[in-house]
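Human: Can I borrow your eye for a moment on a structure tokenisation matter? Separate attempts, laid side by side, tell us more than any discussion would. Could you pick a protein and write out its sequence and tokenised fold? No explanation is needed for now; the record alone will do.

Assistant:
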Amino acid sequence: MGKGTLYWITGLSGAGKTTIGNALYYELKKKQDNLIILDGDILKKLVGNSLGYSQSDRKKRAYYYSNLCKTLTDQGISVVICTIAMYDEVRDWNRANIEKYVEIFLNVNKDILMKRDRKGLYSGQSAGKIENVAGMDQDVEFPKNPDIIIENNGTITISDCVNKIMEYKVNVKDTFDRDVNYWNQYYLRKEKEIQEPSDFAKFVLPYMETHKKIMDIGCGNGRDSIYFSQNGLEVTGVDASEEAISHLNQYNMKNSMFVCDDFVTCKALYQVQYDYFYSRWTIHAVSEKQEGELLKNVSSAIKKKGLFFIEVRSIKDDLYGKGTKIAKNTYSYNDHFRRFIVKKELEEKLEKLEFEIIYEKEDKGLSKTTVSDPVLIRIIARKR
């Protein structure tokens, strides 16, 4: 499932956010169904009366909007939002956390805003009747690098504004699409018959009880998911490879569900409570930032005393340092993304999320094949 796009329309009161936002929504609706519009006035009602209009309350409200939009776009729903939210840190958060983000700034001269003043905010503030009006007695941070600037001073039509936005090519962040392609090609080349379960799957099975829920994070060809299902567990397998998931879904296996999605951000799946999470060779396949998000999602979705099974490639592995360095402990080697994990750092991250390490090992011989014997880290962590 692809991510939705967030169209973040910002500007002061009277800039035309709602008018342009609605026009954009109806134009986009002609081409896609998974789309909603969120207007600032409606959103304020959702937040309720707990937040006022001070700088701190406005910022809290803006972060609420951002998190709501991320939740929706992560589930493939595009969002048009009309909001003032004039804070650099909020817009920076959007860019860092929302994969498809378009920032649209409606710039309008102050004298024109004063004339429009449909809500009476500017006249009320000038008369001393209203306080905390953004752009008047309350400072704002105008966007410094918006994707689109529209000078909406009355010299451009609504249709032209919408066309300008529609013509913009959304810049999708590099979320290791190259490796999604790598794994799609990998599973196309490999035989599609179900293989033997991994040594790690066999190792952790005795820690599990039948009829419990487990998520296999980055399930790949599903050999371990199927092994768990055959041993009485209720399995959800998630992987970004369409090739792997479409093949697995042909089997219609009992007690198994396979989903093609980004296992870091698939919020809908993490709303379920699981007894176990299983992550074999997946944490080292994402960035450190994505790892942090993944661990938090697991922590929130695992039951108390639930077990988290992890196997990852260690920084002590022979492949460490080979290829092109692209980040800390991270290399591109043979067109394949590899990040190498420091065992102590991973353990500390888990402990901060209230996991207790009940088993740990770092060594060769844990997943030996005829062509390689990597240094791996094995961890079993129990949620406190």
In short: The first helix runs from residue 17 to 29. The longest strand covers residues 302-313. The chain has 14 helices and 15 strands. Confidence is low (pLDDT under 50) at residues 174-178.
